[in-house]
Amino acid sequence: MSEGSSSESETSACSSKYDPLKALYSEKPKLPNKKAPMYENLVQYEAALKYNDSQSSAIIPVGQNKLVQQREEEKERKKQEQQRLLEEKNKQRFAQYEVPVRKERRVKNVLTRIEGIQGPLAALKDCVDLELRIKVITRHATGVRGALYGTLVAFDKQWNLALRDVVEVWKRKAPGKRKIPPGLGTPVQKGTATTISPVPVVTETPLGGGRWECTRHLPQVMVRGEHVVLVNVVERR
């Protein structure tokens, strides 16, 4: 037998002259089955023969990364399922000892009551949500006083209205026919109040027949419901 054939028999795993050391360092080792699985050591090989591949403890050969990933995902899924079952069991176990949680009491005010308002006042809610300008006709003790043109901010069931950017228009007698109480005729001394909130300027226009039309602009106005005669939308979007 030639030296080359002797060398081949020593590197062939099926030969009686197989030399594992030479096969390890050989450049062209002969493999009985090229598709045979590869393991890290003999312990893994023995474990692979002992356990079935369908078991979770089966040894996966080298290079089967996809199988390794699938097994890890299955382990994670089972772990989460066990954790969920444990939490459910503990929840049922301690349910009888739980103290009922007291619901937080919702604060009630004008703005919160507006949200669930129904009936005729729902039209005023649309004016608040859409920021529509409205006309409010007001009255005094003996009849109609005038009108307010402004944007509605808030209201309540008594028809108390909060308006902003208001233009007030009303009529009164000519200056020579007015009866002004003595207290109202005395000018107010200038102080810090006038610098914080200046007195609105009233513009008067004669209409004839001893009647004058008065107009003034007010940043904010609070109108009591007992003074409201009629509310009308004057500007729609």
Please state the average pLDDT score: 79
What gyration radius follows from the Cα positions, in whole Å?
47 Å
Distance between the termini: 107 Å
Q: What percent of residues adopt helix (DSSP H or I)? A: 25-40%
Provide the β-strand percentage band: 15-25%
Q: SSE order, as H and E?
A: HHHHHHEEEHHEEE
Shape: rod-shaped
User: If helices are DSSP runs of H or I spanning 4 or more residues, what is the number of helices?
Assistant: 8
Q: State the secondary-structure class.
A: alpha+beta
Taking the sheet with the most strands, its summary is: 6 strands, antiparallel
List segments where confidence is low: pLDDT < 50 over at least 5 consecutive residues. Answer: none
How many E strands? 6
Domain Sm: 119-237
Coiled coil: 64-92
InterPro entries: Lsm11, LSM_dom_sf, Sm, Sm_dom_euk/arc
Pfam family, one: LSM
Structure characterization notes:
This protein is of the alpha+beta class and 237 residues long. Helix content is 32%, strand content 25%. It is rod-shaped, with a radius of gyration of 47 Å. InterPro entries: Lsm11, LSM_dom_sf, Sm, Sm_dom_euk/arc.
